[in-house]
Every structure is written in structure tokens, then in C-alpha cells.
Amino acid sequence: MAFSLFCFYTVLLLLVASSSASTPNFNPPYPKAISDLKDATVKFLGLQADDLKISGFDVREAMVGHSVAYEFDVEVDNKVLPFKLLEDVNRWDYVDLPIFHVEEPGRTSDEKGLVEKKTSESGLSPVLAPFQLAGPMELWIQDAKDMRISLPHDVDAGVLKKVILADGAVVTVKGARSVSLRHPLDLPLPLNRTNNGFASGLLSLAEWLRHASRGQETPLLSLRIVGPTSLTSPSPPSASSSNKLKLKRLAPGLVELSSSSKTIATHVLSSFDRQEEATALLTPSQFSTLWPLASINGSNSNLLGFETLLASVLGPKANKKGSFKLLKADVSAQTFMKIGFAVEKKLKKGDGIWEGLPGWRTKPENVKMHFEVLAKVDGNKVVPERITPLKPVLIEDTVASNELLGNVSMSRVPIVHPPPDPFAL
Questions:
Q1: Side-chain half-sphere of 71: how many Cα atoms within 13 Å?
Q2: 46 Rama class: left (phi>0) / alpha (psi -120 to 50) / beta
Q3: Which UniProt keywords apply (predicted)?
């Protein structure tokens, strides 16, 4: 009797302990950013059937990397053609970002702002590699309250909103998050012209635009730069170098940078009819870089790729006299994330999956497809860019020998003797 009571109380204590213990949550709720990504991905694939099951989107398996995005809008024959190109991500890492955390209910606006600040500091605001720009052109600076300017020593120019680069002035831009074209450009054709064995293409277009800017025939090339940290003069070979820049204050927030070694062009283009003259003025040394990006070599693989893409877009028009318009050009440093998910569907008659399967094989009830989504991290949002199906692991079927031989006894299988090989030992 005592033993029975002991067993009863022991079971009762175990039941109380198990009921009070917290059951582990094997399906934790998605963070809002991942939940929005899941909904956008499902909508992108057009999955609305009730018999589908979406799994995955585990933030523990999400990988983060940085890349550079190029966006262009080209107008040809009154048709606007948008393009978007992405550089390959060199490195993917497992990063615990604040947007991967489940948002707690009742969070105040100050706490949300702190999360956004931590998100920005955790690597979600990458910057472009330092690059050089050459005048004549104008730069509109955005979000540059703490930007410094060095010529080569630091100069207190206040809060700069606009910087004019005179002809011959070259600056190095560091810490920029994006660079974009402020006004559309009308560019001449034909695109493919040669001079001294050098292919013109984009280089001749850039040189034409440079001559046009020098002659004030067209407005100055205008760029918007977001978030630069510094504008510096390229390092001179000596202290007495003539590459030093001079700063001139034109208005509050507006300065002009000029070079003491400024070279005035003696030839200026006035219309599209003088394109041949522009080509004749070009020399092999001028073909080495792409104006106004003085740091990009003419043989750069990305530049050659852009030229091939542009030629394919223009088609036969690329070799004829005329013009086309560049409406938009934007280069930005982006943070990307890739994460896997799976879609499971119940099979029904008529789906076509069962066709071709032998009668002895068990018919599958579900089919599962695996995908990987590449998404752009934009602040606290994650926007899907590309969805790639993953190849499933091939499963080898193992079949019994009696199934292959038609359930025939091995004693009835004829014995076949191959011809003897005189080289066999």
C-alpha cells in the first residue's frame, strides 16, 4: 500500500512539473523584416494554392554580403529601357543583424530609433570604394555635414552642398554610398568608331561630353553624391607639384575647386555634325581613362561589358548617325542577404509526377522544391531581387535482382562463357 501511494505521488509530481515547465518553441515567430520577405517572395512566385506549405526562412541560415548595383534608364526611339546590374558578392558571412530579431510589443519610438541606429552601424550602410572625378562638372552633396575637404591639407569650408570642379581639377571621393546623374544626357551616335587602333565606344562618348562641357554648349555634367566623408586632392609626387587645388568660396555651401595646371582646350565641339573632329582629336593617352571617372581604365572589364550591353540595346542604330538619351544612371553600394526556403505540395491525380514510375515503386504523396532568394536590405526592409531554384539531391534507386530478372531463379539463367583473352594471366 505504501509503495502504491509513493508511485501515485511520484506520477503526480511529474505531471505538475511537466505542466509548469515551458515547452520549447520549435517554430519561433518570424521577425517583421523576414515575415515581409516571405510574403513578398510567395507573392512573387504566385503561390496562392491552399495545398502548399512554405517552410524555411530561418534567420540562423541567412547570409549577408555587400555588392555594387548599377541602374540605368536608356531612351531609344521614344522607348525607355531600364537595366539593373549587380556585381558578384565576394564574401558571404553569417551576421546577426538587428532586423533579424523579433520586435517586442509595446516598443516605443525611441527604442525603434535605437534599433535602426544599431542596424546602420552593423554594416547595413556599405560604401563605394574610393574613386576619382575630373572636371569640368558639378557635385551636389547630400548628407555631408561631417564631410572634410583636403587640398592636401584640411580646409574648413563649412557645410558643403555644392562643389564645382573646374577644368583640370581632380578629386578623390571617399565614403560615398551612391552616385547618380541629376539631369538626363543626350549622347551622339554612331557608337562604334575607331582611332589609332583603339575602340571608341563609351570612351568617345565621354570625350565628346567633356568637350561639350568645356565649350559651355551644354549644361555642366551634374552628379548627386550621397554620404561622402571626404573630398581630397590626389597625392602629389612632391610638395611643389602643380597638381594642388585652389578653393574659392562662391556662396554659403558653394565652393569651386580649380587646378593651377589647368589646360584650356583649343578645340570645342558645337554640334553633332563635328563628331568626326572629336574622334580625330583623341589620342591613345586619352583613351586610357573614362571621363569623368579618372580612376577607371579604358580596358576595365565592367566598362567593356557596359559597352557590349549598350551596343546590343541600340542594335543597328548604334552604327548610324543620330542620338540617344541617358535618363538615369545610379551606382550604389548595397547590402544583400540570401536565405533558403522550401515549398511542399500534395500530389493529386493528373499532376504528371506519377507518370513513368514502375508499378512496384511507392507513389510519393508530396513533392518538395527548394529555393534560394537573394534580397536587398533597405533600412529595416528586405526586398527580394532574385529567386533561384536549387537542384535537389539525386536519390539512387535500389532494386532487387529478382525484379530486374523478372523473378527468375538464378539456376535457370544461362551461363555465358566469354572468349578467352590470350593476354590474361
A1: 10
A2: left
A3: Signal
d(CA 371, CA 342): 6
Supply the range of the domain harboring residue 185.
125-299
Which CA distances in Å does 17 have to 22, 23, 376, 397?
10, 11, 46, 47
Compute CA distances 12 → 20, 23, 126, 187, 206, whole Å.
12, 19, 59, 85, 85
Residue range 96-121, pLDDT digits in tens: 888 888 765 555 544 445 444 454 44
What pLDDT does 24 receive? 44
Distance CA 136, CA 257 (A): 10
Q: How many domains does the chain have?
A: 1
**In which region does residue 414 sit, left (phi positive, over 0), alpha (psi from -120 to 50) or beta (all else)?**
beta
Instruction: Please list the ranges in the chain whose pLDDT falls under 50.
Output: 3, 5-27, 109-112, 114-117, 119-123, 194-199, 237-241, 263-287
As a whole number of angstroms, the distance between CA 352 and CA 349 comes to 8
